[in-house]
Amino acid sequence: MARKSSRREFLRGKAAADALADAAAGPLAEAPPGPGCAGGGYVVRVSRRAMACEFEVLLNAGQHPEGDDAALRALDLLEPLEAQLSVFRPDSAVSALNRAAAAGPVQVETPLFELLELAQRLHAATNQAFDITAAPLGEAWGFDRRAPRVPPEAELQQARALVGGHLLDLDPQRRTVRFSKEGVRVNLGGIGKGYALDRCAEALAAAGAEHFLVHASGSSIAARGDCLADPPGWIVGIPHPLRPGRRLAELRLVDRALATSGSRFQSFVHEGRRFSHVLDPRTGWPAEGVLAATALAPDAATADALSTAFFVLGPEGTRQFCQEHADVAAVLCTRSSERGGYDIRHFGLDEGILRQPAYFPSCSQY
Asked: Per-residue confidence at 13, pLDDT binned at 50, 70, 90?
């Protein structure tokens, strides 16, 4: 069983003792959605709130003697990362870029430029389903104000004119970014949490930790090592998009990242039709048919972006992407023809990665 601990408790060494005292742990399959050790070992947690969610590091108790301090130092990276990436901070590097890049090339720091390059590569690889310029669409639909509505066609077309990877000019030699049109902006919300997890994971590995998991509110996860369990792996539950508090499926992660996108908490009904907050940047309209999309990839930034892209692409586009990228896998929950029904489809998963308790419906592999 895992126990959350404060910074003060970690510095006193209290967390490990408490974790060892939590000897009675129920079966993982009955636990609420969230990560854990496949072997049911004692897990120490340390957390920090950032980027509007809870970041948390999980370590096996006693496995890394200096693991608690390493976890605290890794989480200390979140504040400067948020200060750099957040569009909600006027003084962030991304906000400064958005203000100036339409007037001319803006030079940015190497890590931010590399993240923008990754986003552009994923934009092209997903047939433009992932797009960091799509913020005007969310504003047109009112999702940014938590007041969703169907926008007038003229307003939607105006927003669409400001969206697209072709509007970004990245110069690797000069490390500059330029927007080709006034009003274009980048928003790294669809890839930023995963990127932050990757930076935390790098810091933990550099400190000597070999087996750990770091996640952001359970929706974006980076796992390293195998948890020293038998069978090996960190068990991660995918939250059910229709049944709060239950798991849609469970996955076993070893040296892999995962991210899930869903619309249960951000959608609205208009004239009997439900609209998701996940928008297709190619059409400007909400993606339909998918209830939740989970992507597995070598790094968390890629998984973060792909979970959104797979939600937009749907089963066929996701199947094709996974066929073309052997290091990527996916689990989709889609609407079925039965009222209130759903199907689970998975692509590119190795045998033994997906766990399916008896109460899950049958999964289909494509």
From this structure: very low
